[in-house]
Automatic annotation (TrEMBL):
Keyword Zinc tagged: yes
Purpose of the protein: Negatively regulates transcription of bacterial ribonucleotide reductase nrd genes and operons by binding to NrdR-boxes.
CC cofactor: Zn(2+)
Gene: nrdR
Span of zinc fingers (unnamed): 3-34
Designated name of the protein: Transcriptional repressor NrdR
Length: 149
């Protein structure tokens, strides 16, 4: 980490703080040559391993757009979708892994979506879990009824 004032490459960390959401670390650094101080922010990267084998950075907006499709025509507000996206991201990040599989992202969506709207949940689950016949739907509905009881 070069000093932004004199480009010296030797700096020392004088203070380290983790942000409230736990996603980033702020470090206060001091240059050993000019003694000026500056702050750096490091954020942890969460990667998603796709079924195709590709790896891409986790993108909360993709979670939201996927869920939005399942929510068409349902009384769900944009804030609800945002809150859901945040919950999913926090859930995944709280596992402390650098990489998760795309199925795990889908699974992390199911629970908060069920709480939000059961119809949207059924739509999402049917696509995500590859429902193939009525029995699959019936099982999911039975499970929902059990959880509601
Ligand atoms: Zn310096």
């Amino acid at each position: 980490m070069h000093c932004p004032f004199c480009q010296n490459s030797d700096t020392k960390v004088v203070d380290t703080r983790i942000s409230d959401d736990g996603h980033s670390i702020r470090r206060r650094r001091e240059c050993t040559r000019c003694s000026k101080r500056f702050t750096t922010v490091e954020s942890t990267m969460l990667l998603v391993l796709k079924n195709s084998g590709n790896v891409e950075p986790f993108d909360r907006s993709k979670v939201i757009s996927g869920v939005r499709k399942a929510c068409q025509g349902r009384p769900i507000k944009e804030e609800d979708l945002k809150a859901l996206g945040q919950r999913v991201e926090e859930d995944l990040r709280s596992r402390g892994l650098a990489q998760v599989r795309s199925e795990e992202v889908g699974r992390a969506i199911l629970e908060p979506l069920r709480e939000l709207d059961v119809v949207a949940y059924m739509r999402f689950a049917s696509v995500y879990q590859n429902f193939e016949n009525l029995d699959d739907f019936q099982r999911a509905i039975d499970m929902l009824k059990q959880q509601a009881a």
